[in-house]
Recover the amino acids of this structure.
């Protein structure tokens, strides 16, 4: 949520001339007040100018220009200068337009968001630097009235530029932070504790320089270096507050005659360290905000993952219920078929056997013999179908017996496929659902082998081991080896019957190619 001044400065609503006229008046009074506080160390109105240009959309810049030009005019009238002279235009009017052109080129017509990224902070500092560099030649041309050498001319221009630049670094970031409400977010004891430590450290070094001025080239940088600490720990807002506070301390010491270090050296060090601290603080703020956004995204993903986990659990339960219903339906269907068709076919066979006693001719005997043979084939087919629906061995003799000598082996033998089976662990100790799942997975694989017609060997490996918790770990391997004479080997693809059963058991299903074949690997935990 933005602070109220920013809502006013960046309000896109048209009109509101009265409010902006009042704001221009307040800006003019602030300009005059900051101009009175300016000194050789800094020119504070340059900081006010940069901050307002950066925060206000271009459609409102006319009010900013009017406030500063009127303030310059009042100052000139008080000092007895002519408002219609070229000097007033160069010193009182042109600087604002130079700054406005630089800000427009770097920022555009609309204000950027807060200075919470290194790129925005670099643009902000660069706008101030280019504006100060563009204004300093004008100030030298119209404010310096005596002859200078080339070196002195350049030095004078740099002094004007450093004055504007220090005024910007000391005041502009702080005003932007206040407008965005950033200082309210940073209002915590840790900031003021660290700021006090930085000020005390700087005062100690400045007092040392008062006693030993020759140490300036060795220890002066140490007085400003803690600004990097403030920027790193408290973001660009902490760097802005630290730069302003340290600038005020330096100005007070210079004005009181306590600090006798060359002002240009102080300006240069404060400009370099202050600008670096602001950029480092912006990078720290961006990193902190990205961490917060990432943590929020992780929390959202965790909630979604938990929700998906719950849905997956419900789907597994529904799948298990459907599997149980399917098995129950197949069991009931097998019982019904055996009761209805099995008895009828058995009765038909009995009547045909009785008819043999009454038929004496050879033709009738052959006819009855063919009927009895067809009845036997029907009985055998019915028996096979019933065993496919629900093999009796699975309920009477257990899983291992049903796999080794049940209907699956008969299907493979009828298709001419070599069958090999190996078992590890207590396969028959599995629960009913797990036994049924293993059998149906093997049944789906056998049907796939019979369908492909080029499979010459089917190998089954079942390993059952007690798990660390409750239940058993089941590992099932199914190898389908093709004939070496097969010309077109199908690519490995999951078998739908296996996938459905593995999903119901919350297991893992992998397929990998082997020499002349495919390997289907299934793993799941039974009874967990």
């Amino acid at each position: 949520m933005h602070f109220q001044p920013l809502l006013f400065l960046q309000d896109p609503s048209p009109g509101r001339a009265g409010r902006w006229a009042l704001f221009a008046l307040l800006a003019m009074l602030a300009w005059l007040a900051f101009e009175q506080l300016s000194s050789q160390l800094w020119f504070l109105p340059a900081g006010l100018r940069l901050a307002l240009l950066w925060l206000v959309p271009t459609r409102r810049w006319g009010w900013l220009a009017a406030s500063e030009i009127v303030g310059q005019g009042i100052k000139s009238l008080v000092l007895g200068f002519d408002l219609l002279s070229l000097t007033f235009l160069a010193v009182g009017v042109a600087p604002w337009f130079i700054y406005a052109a630089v800000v427009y080129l770097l920022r555009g017509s609309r204000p950027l968001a807060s200075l919470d990224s290194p790129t925005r902070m670099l643009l902000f500092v660069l706008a101030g630097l280019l504006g100060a560099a563009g204004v300093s030649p004008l100030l030298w041309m119209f404010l310096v009235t005596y002859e200078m050498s080339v070196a002195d001319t350049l030095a004078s221009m740099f002094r004007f530029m450093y004055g504007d630049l220090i005024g910007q670094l000391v005041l502009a970031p702080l005003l932007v932070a206040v407008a965005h409400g950033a200082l309210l977010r940073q209002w915590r004891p840790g900031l003021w504790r660290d700021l006090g430590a930085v000020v005390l450290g700087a005062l100690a070094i400045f007092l040392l320089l008062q006693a030993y001025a020759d140490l300036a080239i060795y220890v002066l940088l140490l007085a400003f270096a803690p600004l990097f600490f403030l920027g790193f720990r408290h973001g660009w807002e902490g760097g802005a507050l630290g730069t302003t506070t340290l600038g005020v301390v330096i100005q007070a010491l210079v004005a009181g005659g306590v600090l006798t270090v060359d002002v240009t050296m102080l300006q240069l060090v404060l400009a370099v360290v202050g600008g670096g601290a602001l950029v480092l603080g912006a990078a720290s703020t961006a990193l902190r905000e990205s961490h917060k956004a990432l943590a929020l995204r992780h929390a959202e993903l965790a909630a979604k993952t938990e929700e998906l986990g719950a849905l997956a659990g419900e789907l597994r339960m529904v799948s298990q219920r459907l599997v149980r219903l399917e098995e129950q339906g197949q069991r009931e269907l097998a019982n019904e078929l055996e009761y209805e068709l099995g008895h009828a076919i058995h009765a038909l066979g009995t009547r045909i056997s009785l008819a043999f006693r009454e038929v004496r001719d050879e033709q009738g005997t052959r006819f009855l013999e063919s009927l009895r043979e067809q009845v036997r084939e029907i009985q055998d087919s019915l028996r096979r179908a019933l065993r496919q629906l629900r093999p009796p061995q699975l309920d009477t003799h257990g899983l291992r017996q049903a796999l080794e000598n049940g209907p699956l082996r008969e299907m493979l033998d009828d298709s001419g496929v070599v069958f090999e089976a190996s078992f590890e662990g207590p396969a028959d100790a599995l629960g009913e659902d797990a036994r049924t799942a293993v059998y149906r997975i093997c049944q789906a694989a056998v049907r796939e082998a019979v369908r492909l017609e080029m499979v010459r060997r089917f190998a089954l490996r079942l390993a059952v081991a007690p798990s660390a918790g409750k239940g058993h770990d089941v590992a099932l391997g199914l190898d389908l080896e093709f004939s070496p004479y097969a010309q077109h080997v199908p690519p490995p693809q999951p078998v739908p019957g296996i996938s459905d059963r593995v999903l119901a058991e919350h297991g893992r299903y992998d397929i990998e190619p082997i020499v002349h074949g495919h390997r289907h690997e299934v793993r799941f935990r039974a009874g967990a």
Summary: The longest helix spans residues 263-358. The two ends are 50 Å apart (CA to CA).
